Amino acid sequence: MSIWEYANPKKFIATTTPLVPWVLGVAIACLVVGLFWGFFLTPDDFRQGSTVKIIYLHVPAALMAINAWFMMLLASLVWLVRRHHVSALAARAAAPVGIVMTLIALITGAIWGQPMWGTWWAWDPRLTSFLILFLFYLGYIALWEAIEDPDTAADLTSVLCIVGSVFAVLSRYAVNFWNQGLHQGTSVPVATGERTISDVFFVPLVICMVGFGLLFLALVMVRTQTEIRVRRMRALEMRMRS
Amino acid sequence: MIALLRRDLTLAVRAGGGFGLGLAFFLIVVVLVPFGVGPEAAVLSRIAPGILWVAALLAALLSLDRIFALDFEDGTLPLLATSPLPLEGVTLIKGIAHWITTGLPLTLAAPALGFLLNLEMSAYVWLLASLALGTPALSMIGTFGAALTVGLRRGGLLMSLLVLPLYVPTLIFGAEAVRRGALGLDATTPLLMLAGITLGSFALLPFAASSALRVNLR
Amino acid sequence: MNLTVTDLSVARGGAPVLSGVSFVVNAGSALVLRGPNGIGKTTLLRTLAGLQPALSGTVDVPEDAVAYASHADGIKAQLTVTENLAFWADVHGTKMPDSVFGAFDLDDLRTRLAGTLSAGQKRRLGLARLGVIGRKVLFLDEPTVSLDGFSVKMFANWLRNDHLAHGGIAVIATHVDLGIDAPELDLTPFRSTAHASGGSDEAFL
Q1: Domain boundaries, chain A
Q2: What's the complex ipTM?
Q3: With contacts defined as CB-CB under 8 Å, which chain C residues touch A8?
Q4: Nearest to B83 among C53, C72, C92 (CB)
Q5: B21 and B63 in contact (C-beta within 8 Å)?
Q6: What are the chain C neighbours of A9 within 8 Å (beta carbons)?
Q7: What is the largest CA-CA distance in chain B?
Q8: Given A68, A239, B203, C145, which is the most exposed site by the fewest CB atoms within 10 A?
Q9: pLDDT of residue A199 exceeding 80
Q10: pLDDT-derived band of residue A197, with 50, 70 and 90 as boundaries?
């Protein structure tokens, strides 16, 4: 029994189909609880007022936007090394979800920034990095769409994903160097363990993060299943023609 | 490998447009900017570093799809792939040849265009240095983009979409070096970063480009 | 040195086209591939040359002895005939033999730009590359397209007297009779069935 067994398309569909409703259910539950708690049961921030509550959409979306790219990077590496089709298709399936998360983070950020900074958009390092991440997603998706042969597309997008990751990190540092920015520091620094956010806000935030994570997982599973079925249709069509 | 470099340069000279087109484009973009933002010398002088770098970047982008497309169409690439040259060497040489035909002339022409935009006197050294150090990275990153899209019809537009985000760090450090130079500050740090990107690109991207090329030749 | 192909399966666009191809070509001999259009001659030759991976099976030949030639000659219109050939000699680290111009009837064209040559002359130039690079194992895909009868004979002469006679090997996909003494291999029996294994879609069926 090895984890690679799940790389078989049929096995993947068989395993994930019963999982999807549960994951999706828990995700929705988390989001409903987290967002309701966050929006209605927390006090207003003494400086930022009620606008701070957009954090419950903004932070989890931003988190998943980056994690989705990480997941694509891992899946691409697995495809290049082990040639499991499900891995390549999962990377393909995650990209549109990731780009939507990036968009949500950008838009909620603009809505939050308007009353706080007095502007919808500033060329702040974090904002700019997300805009660049958005462009990377766009290029990645466009390359998948442009190539007809699925294996060629998987190979080329994987190479792009790896090179893109390196340059995305480079861009992050370059942008930091370029402009010091308005954006506040992270509210949940993982490395130091210190929180700049009080528990009242933090608990619903964590629930929302879990919700977004599970939502992403569910969406990627469903979309990967779709990609597998599309590939299967194509394969069957080719067999019928030959 | 020298033979390939010599051939590519000969072709660029004889085919025409190799050296000239990118330069002409560079000139036109720089000339168009004052029409857009107005003739005020102070404004132009302020934005000159950025304009020069963005224009150089676009001029380099313009000729990227020729790097592999011609050799792909006439069947040279599979012949090179079965020759004793490693494909990594081929992509490296292609990147170098692209730099000699576009990046180098752009670097040399940039100071002349700096005058048109009232660039601060103190910035010229940094302009030359940053372009000389930065444009090779543009060529090598572009070679990677060209290798990814070589088999595609209408790959040119897609390639711009893939390559431009990769150009961001180079552009930031390049323009920053000139901007600091214009303010009379020391711009060694961005220059060193630029040199790092260039060296890193030349060390690693030939491998990525040649693996993409192999996939496209299948 | 010989070329040994064992149980080779090849795919085009991820779908198996030929399965179980096996043959041996000894030094000094050639093999002619036959079969209707679309059977997979080009795919097989590209796989033999190492341009694409085989689905299964082995090709046993020293990798640095292989050369591939197809309809696309890789000729640069802006270079002269001599420059075109000299480039390939340089890339392969060989000395260009002067006899090659005579063998392919290019003597009068040496300083002409390749872009000004006719289709047949270009094809001769493309084939002359094979005489320059000094590779022992040639995989030729329709080498005689757009050649007239005289040129076909000339090419066959070169292949017999300058290549095979010096211990070379050639695998040729062609529809014309080259007039060289070589066994033929009909690929029709190797056509992959619809249920052949190894295609990239296999895991999805």
Answers
A1: 20-182+198-241
A2: 0.91
A3: 203
A4: C92
A5: yes
A6: 203-204
A7: 57
A8: B203
A9: no
A10: low
pLDDT tens for each residue of C129-138: 888 888 888 8
Predicted confidence (pLDDT) at residue A193 exceeds the cutoff of 60: no
Picking from A159, A173, A178, the nearest residue to B212 by CB comes out as A159
Considering its fold, how many domains does chain B have in total?
1
The domain in which residue B140 lies consists of 2-217
- Cα angle at A99 between A95 and A104, to 5 degrees? 145
Mutation for A interface: B162, B170, B194, B197, most A CBs within 10 A: B162
Q: Do C204 and A235 touch (CB under 8 A)?
A: yes
The residue ranges of DSSP E strands in chain C, in sequence order, are 2-12, 15-26, 30-34, 56-60, 66-69, 137-141, 169-173, 184-186
3-state helix, strand, coil in chain C (%, to 5): 35, 25, 40
Cβ separation of C76 and B78 shorter than 8 Å?
A: no
Please state, in angstroms and rounded to a whole number, the distance separating the CA atoms of residues C116 and A181.
61
Is the per-residue pLDDT at B89 higher than 60?
yes
Judging by beta carbons within 10 Å of its beta carbon (0-12, 13-18, 19+), is residue B158 exposed, middle or buried? buried
pLDDT, mean of residues C147-163: 86
Q: What is the structure's pLDDT at A225?
A: 93
The CATH number, out of the four listed (3.30.365.10, 3.40.50.300, 2.40.50.320, 3.40.190.10), of the domain defined by the range C2-192: 3.40.50.300
* pLDDT 10s digits, C64-100: 888 898 888 888 888 888 888 888 888 888 888 888 8
- Rounded to a whole number of angstroms, the distance from the CA of A105 to the nearest CA of chain C is 36
Return the pLDDT at C150: 85
Report the DSSP beta bridge partners of residue C59: C5
Name subunits touching B (3+ CB pairs < 8 A). A, C
pTM of the model: 0.90
CB pair distance less than 8 Å for C83 and B81: no
Helices marked H in chain A — which ranges? Answer: 9-40, 55-82, 85-117, 125-146, 150-178, 199-241
Decide if C51 and B217 are in contact by the 8 Å CB cutoff: yes
**Pairing state of beta strands C184-186 and C30-34?**
parallel
